[in-house]
Amino acid sequence: MPSTCKFRLNNKNGVYYSGQWVKGVIVLQTTKEKTIRNICLRILGEAKVHWSEKNSREKSTGMHEQIANYKGNKTYVDQHVVVYEEEVLPAGTYVFPCRFRLPKSCPTSCRGKYGHVRYLLQLTVDRPFRYDNVFNRPLTVLKRVDLNLNPEFKVPLQCEEICSVGCWPCATGDIIFTLWIPFGAYASGQILHYSLKIQNHSMTDITGYKVEFIECMTFVAQRPEYNEIETRTTVASQNSDDVCLRLSNRQFEGEMELPSLPADTEDQGLIRVEHYLQIEMILRGCHSNKTIAVPIFIGNVPIRESLDRAAEAETTPVQNPPPAYHQSDSSDEESTADRPPPYGDLKPPSFEEAISRSTLFLDVEANEFSPDDNFQPLYPMYRHVNDKN
Question: Which fold is adopted by the domain 3-144?
Answer without folding.
Answer: Immunoglobulin-like (2.60.40)
